[in-house]
Design goal:
Distance between the termini: 36 Å
Helix content: 25-40%
Strand content: 25-35%
Shape: globular
Low-confidence stretches: 1-7, 93-111
Strand order of the largest sheet: 6-5-8-9
Number of helices: 6
Number of strands: 9
Mean pLDDT: 78
Order of helices and strands: HHHHHEEHEEEEEEE
Structural class: alpha+beta
Length: about 190
């Protein structure tokens, strides 16, 4: 077994563990059940069937405020698997999410402009950083609103993503993210446990 297989086996095991604790008594819990089932399947097989792909897409285009924070995870997973560069805009009045596929020329143009997304946001104990670059080193500094540094860590993205544990209390924070080319972003991060 290769090191990568062992890593995915750990994610698969984690997903199964989470699944065993979910009882779908409402729509949000049903969405979490769907997401972690899809995630476990992808970690186990490295791909999704056509119907699972459609289910993931349908979950990714929901409104996180109504459908649960797992929508952010579904978006990150969909973009990771299909490298589709879907753009998820704010929720409209009907509760859905408007979305569009970026045209190839626009996607290439957007890839030249560096960006990192934080999902889910609000987060609880961890956040996933999703970069436009498949593999890069990111330096992350998280400060409270008074400017006090609470967390500083260097992460390496793999497959466009890196996970960051957040030992922080509920509240609003600023995350400063810098890459190896000294490009810097400041993102608002909310913690809600």
């Amino acid at each position: 077994m290769q090191a990568e297989d062992t890593l995915y086996a750990g994610y698969y095991s984690d997903a199964l563990s989470i699944l065993s604790g979910i009882t779908a008594t409402n729509n949000v819990e049903s969405n979490y059940l769907s997401y972690y089932s899809l995630y476990a399947g992808f970690m186990q097989y490295g791909t999704l069937s056509g119907s699972d792909s459609t289910t993931l897409y349908n979950l990714a285009v929901l409104c996180p405020a109504e459908a649960g924070a797992c929508v952010h995870q579904a978006r990150a997973l969909y973009n990771y698997i299909y490298n589709a560069h879907l753009i998820y805009e704010g929720c409209n009045g009907g509760g859905g999410v408007s979305y569009r596929m970026a045209p190839t020329g626009l996607a290439q143009q957007q890839n030249k402009q560096w960006d990192v997304g934080l999902y889910p946001n609000p987060a609880d104990n961890a956040v996933t950083l999703v970069s436009k670059n498949e593999s890069e080193v990111l330096n992350v500094i998280i400060k409270d609103m008074s400017g006090r540094t609470l967390l500083q860590q260097s992460l390496k993205t793999s497959g466009f993503m890196a996970n960051l544990e957040l030992p922080l209390a509920n509240g609003a924070y600023l995350a400063t993210i810098t890459n190896s080319r000294n490009e810097k972003l400041i993102k608002k991060l909310l913690i809600a446990k």
